[in-house]
Amino acid sequence: MKIALKPDYLTKRVQFFVFLLGIILMAALPEKAFTQGPGNNFTPGFSGYVQPMIAAGYSKSISNVSDDTKKIDSLDQDANSETDFFPILLWKTVYNLDNGATQFYAGTPKENIVAGTFLLETGIRQKLSGGTILTAAWVPKLPILDNEAWKDPFLLGSDRQETDQDSQAFKVEAESIFGSPVNLRYGFGRQEIDDDQSGIYLSEQPGSTLTTADLQMLKRDSDFHLLEAQYAISFGRGIMIRPGISYLRGDATGDANSFNQFQGKVSFAYPWEQWRFFGNISLGLAEYDEANPIFEKTREDVIYGTTLGVGYTTPFGWKDFTASVFTSFKKNDTNIKFYDSTSMIIAIGLAWLF
Questions:
Q1: Which of 105, 80, 94 is nearest to 43 (CA)?
Q2: Measured between alpha carbons, how far is 259 from 219 in angstroms, rounded to an integer?
C-alpha cells in the first residue's frame, strides 16, 4: 500500500526566504544602548522563581500519540482535534558564587520562555572579563519530542501501541560576545525509540512492495545538531528585540527521517509600568534526505509558530509576585498529510520571585 501526494511548495519557500531576509536585515540595525538582560545577574547568593500554572492544550494530528488517534483507518484521513486541561510548574533556582562571575542553575530560564521553548536545563555559566558569558548545560528532554511514540505509526484498522521515546541534549552557548549583542549556541541531542516497528504492518499486507531496505529507511532513532545565532537590539527602558536564525540537522538511522531545517525567529520583550509583554514569531523550512517508501515522496515541512505573553508585577500589592498568562501556537504544514500537525496552549499562573 503506497500513497503519493503532490502539493506545490514553491510559494511557501519564497515566503520563508523573505522572512529570513527580513531577520538578517533587522540584525544589521545599529545597536542602541545595549544592556544585559535580567538573566545575566551574577549577584552572589541564591535567587529564582516558582510559577505554578493551569493550562489548556489543543492538538490535531494523526501521527502524534493521543487517545483520539489510537486507531486510524487511512494514512491520509483528517485528524480529530483534542483538548486537555493540565497543570504546569515552571521554576528556576540560581546560585551565584561570591566572585560575581560564576553561576549554577537548574530549571526553566525566563529567556527560554520569551523565546517559546519551555524546557528544563541544569548547567553552569561563567562571565569572562571581556563581557562574554559562557554556558554549558544538560537538557533532560528535547522540546520537540513527546515521551511516547507509536510502535508502528502506519498501523491501520487496529489500536496502535505506544512505546517509550527517550531524549536528552547538551548545549554550549556564548552570550554578549566581547560585550556585544551577539549570542551563539550549539546543541546536541539524541532520540531513542524503544520498540520501533515502523512499516511492519504494511509490509505484511498482501501485494505489499515494501522491502527490508524500505523498513530500514523508516527507522526513527536520531541525533540532532543545532546551530543558532541571535542579535539583541535594545531600545532602552528594558525594551528588547532579538532576531535570530538557526539550523537544525536531524540525523536519523533511517534516511527518510533525516532532515535539514532552517528557521528564522524574532523574540521581543516590552515592559511598561507594572506590565511586561513578551513573545516571538518563527518560520522554519525542513527538507528530508530521501523519499518515504510508504508515500513515495520526500517529505518537506513548513513550520509556523508564535508565543505571546503578558505579566503583571505585584498583583494585589503582593511583593515578589508576578501574575502572567501566555499562549503558544505551532503548526507543521507538510507535503505528506500524515505528518500535518497543529498544537496550541494557553496558560495562566502566579510566580513567586526569591
A1: 94
A2: 13
In this structure, are residues 121 and 105 in contact, taking their beta carbons and an 8 Å threshold? Answer: yes
3-state secondary structure of 331: strand
CB 216 within 8 A of CB 231: no
Closest Cα to residue 341, out of 353, 327, 331, 326?
331
The pTM of the full predicted model, rounded to 2 decimals, is 0.86
C-alpha distance from residue 333 to each of 69, 189, 211, 267, 292 (Å):
18, 24, 28, 22, 17
Largest interatomic CA distance in the chain: 71
- Nine cell digits for residue 184: 551563539
CA distance 173 to 186: 6
pLDDT of residue 1: 45
Close Cβ partners of 2 (under 8 Å, ≥ 6 residues apart): 209, 293, 294, 295, 296
DSSP codes, 228-244: EEEE-EE-STT-EEEEE
Q: What is the pLDDT of residues 278-336, one digit of tens each?
A: 999 999 999 999 999 999 999 999 999 999 999 999 999 999 999 999 999 999 999 99
At 123, the amino acid letter reads G
SS3 130: coil
Query: What are the φ and ψ backbone dihedral angles of 337, each rounded to 5 degrees?
Result: -55, -30
Beta strands 121-127; 102-107: pairing state:
antiparallel
Distance (Å) of CA 343 to CA 61, 117, 124, 182, 332: 9, 14, 32, 31, 9
Under DSSP, the state recorded for 96 is E
pLDDT tens-digit series, residues 127-160: 999 999 999 999 987 654 457 899 999 999 999 9
Cell of 83: 483538548
**What are the pLDDT digits (tens) for 63-85?**
988 888 899 999 999 988 899 99
Rg of the chain, C-alpha, whole Å: 22
Q: How far apart are CA 2 and CA 300, in angstroms?
A: 18
Q: What are the structural domains, with CATH classification, of the chain?
A: 10-353 (2.40.160)
